């Protein structure tokens, strides 16, 4: 098969490697540099170890080549993971298969509209038509299958109530930190002896909060107002920690963040949302739903991310009404898959913990069927396949890659990882 892979992050690169070794004609397109998104938060350390951020396939090939690799029990930074991807794409099997600085402008079926051939085998016989824009200009390319592994980090959620932008937010969005800032490094002066507003209670919010807390140890003027839309648990904790979570890094992140609830320089506002944002003389004024306002120096809107569905616009794909994931990936199946893989649940679904741990939501789950979409031979892998659910981990993506090629090639025995993965 001639397969286009879109996105040069960890799952896109893995899909290219797996497909090439499976004997397929794969080509990976990345609109920037390989691993560019990882570089944008390269100073952040992951809460999972290398053991679960390298696939058995890439690890074996790089080891056979003689590469010196980091220990399995060390948690990498974004920069270190990007460096690893560059080692992978330098493998001979991927030579001439990687196309950086090339953006996918549109994906359609050649000679077929979105409304044509619904539930009809003739649609699968129409090749995908990709309009690409690279260094040499625009070009049309044709493929038998497409894997979208573009991620979600370019489309953050807004800070306003209900996920909509609050008044003033759109005009100020270039001044707001939606991604995790480099508090200990490049952005230190923006937080040292300053007042930061953090909105959200996911892993990004915890990471930024803890980085600022490190500054607080040496600066009594450094402080945070932490706005959380939901209430705390009965224990007073913001982060509901799953006792079965095998990620020690994630548990430690939540435990440390919970410990800051009573810190004298942290003002926690529970069941509160941002109503409006203004900026005067270099300082923000945030009006909150508790009828107060916060005068601060920085705003960190760590309210999650959502998938960009524009690539699917002319294909027979719809998104799930709650998660924003491709429609076949229903919310309960996502969480069941997480539970089955032993990685816990996303922050966004923590309040549904008991429901999704029920045995009927975990047993008899065919993970391949979670990837199948109405559009034949079009697959969405990686964190984008989870929509707004933040429960994705790299190992989930590697398993998706294996499942994807079993679906595309109609071969349930194809396994380049090994039965124990």
Structural commentary:
The protein has a five-stranded parallel sheet with strand order 3-2-1-7-15, covered by helices on one side. The protein is of the alpha/beta class. About 5% of the residues have low confidence. The chain is built from eleven helices and 15 strands. Helix 1 packs parallel to helix 11 and helix 7 packs across helix 8. 24% of the residues lie in helices and 18% in strands. It folds into two domains: 256 residues, 3-Layer(bba) Sandwich (FAD/NAD(P)-binding domain), CATH 3.50.50; 141 residues, FAD/NAD(P)-binding domain (3-Layer(bba) Sandwich). A hairpin with a 2-residue loop joins strand 11 and strand 12.
Short description:
Helices cover 24% and strands 18% of the residues.
Mean pLDDT: 89
Strand order of the largest sheet: 3-2-1-7-15
**Helical content, roughly?**
10-25%
**Structural category:** alpha/beta
Round the Cα radius of gyration to an integer and report it.
Answer: 22 Å
List the helices and strands and how they pair.
Layout: E1 2-6, H1 10-21, E2 25-29, H2 36-40, H3 56-65, H4 78-89, E3 98-99, E4 103-109, E5 128-134, E6 137-143, E7 145-148, H5 169-172, H6 188-191, E8 195-199, H7 203-216, E9 223-227, H8 248-259, E10 266-269, E11 274-280, E12 283-288, E13 293-296, E14 298-301, H9 331-341, H10 353-356, E15 378-380, H11 394-408
Name some characteristics of this structure.
single chain, 421 residues, alpha/beta, FAD/NAD(P)-binding domain, 5-stranded parallel sheet, 11 helices, globular
């Amino acid at each position: 098969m001639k397969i286009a892979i879109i996105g040069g992050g960890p799952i896109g690169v893995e899909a290219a490697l797996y497909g090439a070794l499976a004997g397929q004609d794969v080509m990976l397109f990345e609109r920037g540099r390989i691993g560019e998104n990882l570089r944008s938060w390269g100073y952040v350390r992951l809460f999972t170890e290398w053991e679960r951020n390298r696939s058995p396939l890439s690890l074996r090939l790089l080891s056979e080549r003689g590469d010196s690799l980091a220990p399995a029990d060390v948690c990498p930074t974004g920069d270190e993971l990007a460096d690893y991807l560059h080692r992978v794409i330098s493998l001979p099997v991927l030579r001439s298969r990687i196309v950086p600085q090339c953006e996918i402008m549109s994906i359609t079926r050649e000679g077929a509209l979105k409304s044509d051939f619904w539930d009809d085998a003739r649609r699968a016989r129409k090749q995908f038509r990709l309009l690409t824009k690279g260094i040499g200009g625009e070009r049309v390319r044709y493929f038998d299958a497409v894997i979208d592994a573009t991620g979600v980090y370019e489309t953050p959620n807004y800070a306003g109530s209900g996920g909509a932008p609050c008044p003033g937010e759109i005009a100020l969005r270039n001044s707001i930190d939606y991604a995790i800032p480099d508090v200990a490094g490049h952005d230190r002066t923006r937080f040292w002896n300053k007042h930061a507003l953090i909105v959200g209670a996911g892993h990004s919010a915890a990471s930024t909060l803890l980085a600022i807390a490190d500054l607080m140890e040496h600066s009594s003027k450094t402080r945070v107002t932490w706005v959380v839309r939901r209430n705390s648990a009965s224990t007073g904790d913001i982060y509901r920690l799953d006792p079965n979570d095998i990620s020690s890094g994630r548990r430690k992140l939540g435990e440390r963040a919970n410990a800051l609830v009573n810190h004298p320089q942290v003002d926690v506002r529970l069941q509160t949302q941002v109503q409006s944002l203004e900026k005067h003389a270099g300082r923000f004024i945030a009006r909150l739903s508790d009828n107060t306002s916060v005068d601060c120096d920085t705003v960190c809107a760590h309210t999650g991310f959502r998938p960009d569905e524009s690539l699917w616009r002319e294909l027979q794909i719809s998104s799930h009404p709650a998660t924003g994931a491709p429609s076949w990936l229903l919310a309960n199946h996502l969480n069941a898959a997480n539970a089955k893989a032993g990685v816990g649940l996303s922050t966004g679904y923590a309040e549904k913990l008991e429901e999704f741990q029920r045995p009927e939501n975990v047993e008899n789950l065919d993970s391949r069927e979670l990837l199948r979409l109405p559009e034949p031979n079009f697959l969405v892998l990686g964190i984008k396949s989870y929509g707004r659910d933040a429960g994705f981990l790299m190992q989930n993506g590697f398993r998706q890659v294996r499942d994807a090629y079993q679906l595309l090639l109609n071969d349930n025995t194809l396994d380049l990882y090994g039965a124990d993965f």
